[in-house]
Records
---
Amino acid sequence: MSHDLPLLRTVPGACPHDCPDTCAWLADVAWVDGQERVVAMRGHPDHRHTHGALCTKVSRYAERTHHAQRLLTPLRRCGPKGSGQFEPVSWDEALSAIAQRLSAIAQRDPLAIVPYSYAGTMGLVQGEGMAERFFHRLGASELDRTICASAGGAALSATYGLKAGLPVQDFAHSRLILIWGSNPITSSVHFWTRAQEAKRAGARLICVDPRKSETARRCHQHIALRPGTDGALALGLMHALLEREAAGTPTLDHDYLDRYTAGWPELRDEVGRWSVERAAQVCGVSEAEIRDLADAWASTRPAAIRLNYGMQRVRGGGNATRLILALPCLTGAWRERGGGLLMSSSGQFPALDARFGGRHLRGARPTRVINMSALGDALLHPGGDAFGPRVEALVVYNSNPAAVAPDSGQVIAGLSREDLFTVVLEHFRTDTADYADFILPATTQLEHDDIHKSYGHTDVLLNRAALAPLGQCRPNAQIFRDLARALGWTEPELAASDSDLIAQAFGDAIDMQTLQQQGWVTSPHASVGAAPTPFAQGGFGTPSGRAELGARPDLGLAVPTHLDNYESPEADPALAARYPLAMISPPARHFMNSTFVNVDSLRATEREPLLEMHPQDATARGIAHGDTVRVFNDRGDYVCRAAVDDHARPGVVHGLGVWWRKLGLAGSNVNELTHQRLTDLGAAAAFYDCLVEVQPCDAPPAGGRAIIPA
Ligand SMILES: Nc1nc2c(c(=O)[nH]1)N[C@H]1C(S)=C(S)[C@@H](COP(=O)(O)OP(=O)(O)OC[C@H]3O[C@@H](n4cnc5c(=O)[nH]c(N)nc54)[C@H](O)[C@@H]3O)O[C@H]1N2
Ligand SMILES: Nc1nc2c(c(=O)[nH]1)N[C@H]1C(S)=C(S)[C@@H](COP(=O)(O)OP(=O)(O)OC[C@H]3O[C@@H](n4cnc5c(=O)[nH]c(N)nc54)[C@H](O)[C@@H]3O)O[C@H]1N2
Ligand code: SF4
Ligand SMILES: [Mo]
């Protein structure tokens, strides 16, 4: 963004989004048309992980903040649920009405109140900082935040006992990088810069992804497996490693296996059942691809895997992750700098103080946990049985469940309950906000302070407000403080200011002075284990101190193996006969989940919601490139535009996400089609485990419902 206005100041901050890169930014503030505005955003040139560059979407963060449709006052519903009719009210009116309603429900049973939040901001203050304290004090239900990474996270904990990995900057030293279930050109562009450095120095890049993604197109090789078959691929790869060794080529690092792992004999037995031929058949790839991959993995040093979350959003996602985590242990890849694996670095930070989350404020009162990935079922549950009280109030912040949660038909039906009291803290009138009883206007990252950790590197970052809050917006933490006061609560924990919360998050465990001066500080836990990689000499965080490659009876886990998708010809042939296409729904490049969909410049780039299809599947259905199509299964319908190209393999379609329903072609989005069944580990959403059929449909009238053939 260029500008020639005199600058008032440049304010350092941190990107709040759910992205492994957690960039440090600089915001230029100028005086424009009688108000202070951020006129340009750029990456901080001195932060080694940001190296002066923000991604395209976040370079538009100022456009989003100063958007003409920003919510600037509290709103109260004045029409039927979901009609989108609201009237402005004062903060005092809104806070006292909400406090009254919540305390009336809490008098019957506070567990009937449910918070719903995810990673609109990853900040420790405006994320759960004050919110968690508030809901514990209230005695509300707790939310199991499973919508993104909990299958892979549980696998990482079970196998390595620690959410730690290869330092992202060390990928520059790798000579082989497997980019597995990830599209970093879209979702982690600063990792991609490291991969490019390695590539220029001669490294080979292999992408494992059903979709020929932006990244796959720029790797040396692309293994386009069927969705949800990564576990089978890892088993076949291990089988090929064993064959290679049996043929006389030293392949496994027996010393590493003996000293630093447990359970390999059990896993080896399972691998024995997965011939390369069997794995190739399940994955829909050739045997040669698996053997070549095994040869490359065994013979290249240093060799590393960037494993990400795209491969764990299926029934067997946890098992598949456990199998892939075994690969760098088998060959001792961890021994060299630039070798090993990175999935998440989120465990490489000091733990938050036990009192930070305010669990003590709940006292001895009971709790229950609602899984956010099954929100529709939770809202529609009549109550009783093991479930407990019916959900009577939902307080949503940092999330847009009407758009992002699976099985949106059920979510919308739940949000439409006239007797459900819904409060939404938001920047915009999202699909979710349309169903609110009260909408409370929240500040963006340019208008509040915060402190951040990262799941892709190991720095703690500080965010400073560049602007005063726009309109009557308030930071999330302030809104929860204000609600606490309206409820008459006087505990000091509930009055902690944002700067108190920043200071309390890590306490003395980090160097606050450096953080304040520089804007970031490397976590004291950045280097776990022994150099040059975290696990060069074992040091895993499991009870045994070893990487657990086999069963974990203490966690109720069997030896990892491949599990067929819930919705697959193997597991449900009758369903597959009716809905023969496997659908995945990875993010569109210029959106961040459902954030930025309403930013005109970015939506103009994405243009329309797309379904990528292979020409063979399109032709068989009389569909041409650019046609409007109806994608459907027993759960619902989604109208979008067909992109007939070579990005999809035959039998697989890609519904790029996550559009605002009301900005899509016919008032719905791809989550009309996804289901609420959970993954094997971590009870996560299985977004990419989904069968559909597609047919042509007449173009929808502008802004209206599509005309869907009967
Ligand atoms: N631009 C942009 N960036 C984002 C996001 C966004 O929405 N937009 N979202 C952010 C969030 S919340 C997250 S969690 C991260 C996610 O970041 P990553 O975990 O790196 O995932 P994605 O980049 O979404 O890429 C997932 C890839 O997995 C592929 N995939 C789908 N199914 C399978 C499968 O069964 N096996 C394998 N091997 N691959 C599969 C998809 O085709 C896609 O290319 O990205 C973050 N960054
Ligand atoms: N089909 C399909 N569905 C998916 C995915 C997929 O790949 N396919 N990806 C899944 C994944 S990985 C994730 S993480 C989830 C993400 O789901 P969400 O965490 O719900 O992410 P967003 O859609 O970005 O919505 C975040 C909302 O928070 C608001 N927000 C941001 N900052 C603040 C703040 O400071 N205060 C308040 N009050 N609000 C704020 C934004 O305006 C935005 O509307 O979606 C999941 N849904
Ligand atoms: S790359 Fe990720 S962390 Fe960096 S600005 Fe973009 S969304 Fe934010
Ligand atoms: Mo995510």
Note: Residues 703-710 have pLDDT under 50 and may be disordered.
---
Amino acid sequence: MPINMQLINALAVAMSVSPAAAAIKGFNYGSTFNDNSVKVQSDFESEFKTAAGLVGAEDFTSARLYTMIQGGTTNTPISAIPAAIATNTTLLLGLWASGDTFDNEVAALKSAISQYGSDFASLVVGISVGSEDLYRNSPTGIAASAGIGKNPDDIVNDIKTVRSTISGTGLADVPVGHVDTWTAWYNSSNNAVIEAVDWLGLDAYPYFQNTQSNDITSGKSLFQDAINKVNTASNNKALWVTETGWPVSGDKENLAVASTDNAKTYWDEVGCGLLFDKVNTYWYILQDAGKTTPSPSFGLVGSELTTTPLYNLTCPAVVSSSTSATSSATSTGSSGSTGSATGSATSSPTSVPASNATGTPTGTATGVASGTATSSATGTATGFSTGAASTGTSTPTGTPGASGTSTPTGTPGSATTPAGATGTHASGTSSSTSPAFTGAANTVSASVTGIVAAIFAAVVAF
Ligand SMILES: *[C@@H]1O[C@H](CO)[C@@H](O)[C@H](O)[C@H]1NC(C)=O
Ligand SMILES: *[C@@H]1O[C@H](CO)[C@@H](O)[C@H](O)[C@H]1NC(C)=O
Ligand SMILES: *[C@@H]1O[C@H](CO)[C@@H](O)[C@H](O)[C@H]1NC(C)=O
Ligand SMILES: *[C@@H]1O[C@H](CO)[C@@H](O)[C@H](O)[C@H]1NC(C)=O
């Protein structure tokens, strides 16, 4: 193990704090099944109830949507909304921004606000304007036939439209973001979008990073590298993980083997180890094999919608020790507010030889958090930014990494073209639950052609 990885691991422990019982946990939900049939309210209700009862993960009660529009309609609000109200499921709304249906997305958002009122508003935890639009408009996205994307200036305009749409409504205080691949967030030509959002949504799949050494034992470090890259570009905006996961079945991607065992390892190391209760996280995915099974398949349950998962989702107990650490940081929010945050960390000596690392910790919280972490290890850290962008307080949470060590990696994500947008994308429709492998280093899906290593190499160079 190279020293920088030791440092990353040491700091992941040293900077790990647990203030964030508030961190959101949930799953992604497409508007259609894998066979393109449209989900109706009872389908969403079944999925949400299953999520709320999923053994070992009963608290994954938030749902990320990709579109506001019910499948098969022009601009009727998606039936996931009444299903969420019926099941007390919180919502990360999504407006599909590419193509020519954005006006319909906004109309559906307006209708939902007036039709469902405070029952709806009280469940909405975020709004994403677009999903991987910038990636699809990049050379790699175009080369991969990923579909129609959108330019950063247009995404910024869409964000403004959504902000004015929710102004003065029950959703006025909901944080507005955008979801994209790490390569898009790391591309400085897209900085206007970073300036426009309250939070950055990141999709990352080490399994698809097939130009790299991506066996499951590297899954956690590849994921961490992607996070570190985005954090360097994020201008201290909060980072949400909007898609990640490891498939239970499917082709081998370079060294990455799709298997139930590996999916569990990834859940334990990345989900339990880095994300859950620390960073707002939407795992990919509760079920993607409802009618037909895609390849690869990422579902925590198989073709039967059941609360018994394919593998044990109960997070391994964290071995606590007498070594606890406090970290403090002062933060300067982008709005100019300053605050400070302290947290305590419990290190887990069984997992990390954390005793000798030294360095200068720089935690990233809501604002620019530069602080000192004291524990059995100190080091250079770049943490997730998890605080609400509108507040001046910062919460330095874990998953720091050593600076200068990350490798540009692809972060394929879900295209999940909403049914409401059918026909507006050059590549036609894609299943709402098929990951479209839209990252720089990904390969093939039913709707996306392969992307060669040479293309990835070009991306690495930027
Ligand atoms: C809904 O869930 C929230 C937690 O997300 C809980 O505080 C609240 O009591 C629930 N409401 C109902 C009606 O079950
Ligand atoms: C960087 O972003 C701009 C604007 O979205 C895009 O035109 C350009 O192709 C991107 N470059 C790469 C290498 O992805
Ligand atoms: C599931 O994992 C948890 C945490 O490691 C463990 O305590 C529990 O015994 C496991 N359950 C089963 C059925 O193996
Ligand atoms: C700490 O130092 C000891 C002795 O030099 C060494 O064996 C060990 O690998 C070091 N640990 C780390 C995390 O660098």
Note: The domain at 25-283 is CATH 3.20.20.80 (TIM Barrel).
